[in-house]
# Entry
Amino acid sequence: MNILQIAHRLPWPPVDGGNKGVLGFVEAYGQHPDVDHHAFVCMCRFEDERWIAEWKPEPSHVTVEVIDARNSIPRFIANTLFSREPFNMVKYNRESFAAKVEKEISTCTPDVVHFDGLHTAAYAPLVARTAPRALRVLRCHNAEYMILERLAESEANPIKRELIALQARRVKRYEAAMLDHFDLILAITDTDAERFRAINPNCSDRIIVVPAGTKLPRALPPAPTQSGDAVRLIHIAAMDWLPNQGGLRWLRDEVLPLLDAAGLNYHLDVIGKNMPAEFNQMANQRVTVHGFVDDLQPLVDAAHIAVVPLKVGSGMRVKILDYWAMGVPMVATRVAAEGLADGAEPVVALADEPAEFAETVRRLAANPAERQALRQAGFAKVTAGYGWTGLTDQLVKRYTSMLTSRSGRATIAA
# Structure
């Protein structure tokens, strides 16, 4: 089996869920015994170009197209006034990238073309024309329209709210239409699968749920020691994503003052690439703002509790899988834990309101036994069904079955 994977982002460094989700399949496809050849064609934002030389993927063949995909105000205004297409999708439609995809198809003759995210869906007609026998598979990292709808609902400025809502409506129409171009649609959660069925009932029988994965250690890592009543908190997120900015802003403005007022002895490490300047001002004796960190392990090893304060989102938070695998118990909002934890099993401490979130952090800080129970339950869950190797193996078997069935129908028709 030959697989061509297409993405709108360079999956390096693997410091956020989007990058890890793409990279997981790059590595798993490339190492799968039934995949004879895996090629990867991706865009790379010009500000991330420095990472190209550092990424050494094996054994995949990689082609990279560097583009300027910034959300400039003139581009956004032009799109709003003169287009009916969603801005955050059409800005990835590039003739130069299409040429690279077409060249790769002529070189490897793919049996399967894996599209990573709605941002690449516009290239499906090209693939249908140049590789008509190949399965077209769309992996949906999120229900993209839902993120924008939630952003609009949370926006206080009425002008911004209406502009975001306009883009949400455009993305919803676009997402519904694009689902018709694929033989198989990989939703990341049951919730997202139902959202796709609701906006396009015709795709129902082509949707399956394939969650994100993570690298699994052999055993649960040891818990960090605790000096007295001091507790270390950790927040890791890609800070160029608006929902992550909103979540950290909520934590800063609504939750941390409650922890301070309660006299909790804590230290918070704030980590993430492309950290906006406003968050650097959080730094004080209780908060360290690191920005991008080359080696997360020392900070993760020292963390007693992770905080995931996301208020807007869809899909699945890979960071929760990572925390489970790394043995870090966490407090998260229900939006953050969507598709992974609903409170029915003790794998994440859930809290949505500031007082509830702060009190849950305080409770875990004072209760090492509860933290240990969360660590063990989370590790058991992630190792039972979220390893990249097992997820990819199930998917490749489905591709084989679909290709065999398609070949049989072609023989009968002939």
About this structure: The chain is about 45% helix and 15% strand. The chain has two domains: 2-213+387-413, 231-385. The chain has a mean pLDDT of 93. The first strand starts at residue 2 and ends at 7.
